[in-house]
Design a protein that fits this description.
There is one protein chain. The chain is built from no helices and 11 strands. Strands 2, 4, 5, 6, 9, 10 and 11 form a 7-stranded mixed sheet that branches. A 4-stranded antiparallel sheet has the order 1-3-8-7, with no helix packed on it. The protein is globular, with a radius of gyration of 13 Å. The chain is mainly β.
Length: about 120
């Protein structure tokens, strides 16, 4: 069973940086379509970026140029968040699916989810 596990959340001042990590137990990240998503209270999860099996990376407009997704050759996926804004405050999730054919930034397309890690950006 594939299971993503996030870490690295916390509190950061606006303009600061934070790096989230996701370890994928059960397989290598390059075998999957992987995504980072956020969720605000009372709202649905939104994908902010994804990396396809072949390495293509797609970002949501709200984070383009500030957030960077990367992965290693093993089981680790990362989200580097720079120049953070208070509106980035949310629960962040790592998700995986066997491919991105249903849409890399479509939250409902992902079958495997982590438990989430909270990010708080204060001004």
């Amino acid at each position: 069973q594939v299971r993503p596990v996030e870490s690295g959340g916390g509190s950061v001042q606006a303009g600061g940086t934070l790096r989230l990590s996701c370890v994928l137990s059960g397989d290598t990240v390059a075998s999957f379509c992987m995504a980072w998503l956020l969720q605000l209270p009372g709202m649905e999860r939104e994908a902010i970026g994804a990396i396809e099996n072949g390495g293509k990376i797609t970002y949501a407009e709200a984070v383009e140029g500030r957030f960077t997704i990367s992965r290693d050759i093993a089981t680790n996926l990362y989200l580097q968040m720079n120049n953070q804004k208070p509106e980035d405050t949310a629960m962040y999730y790592c998700a995986a699916d066997y491919s991105c054919f249903r849409g890399a930034l479509v939250a409902r397309a992902y079958a495997f989810w982590g438990q989430g890690t909270q990010v708080t950006v204060f001004s």
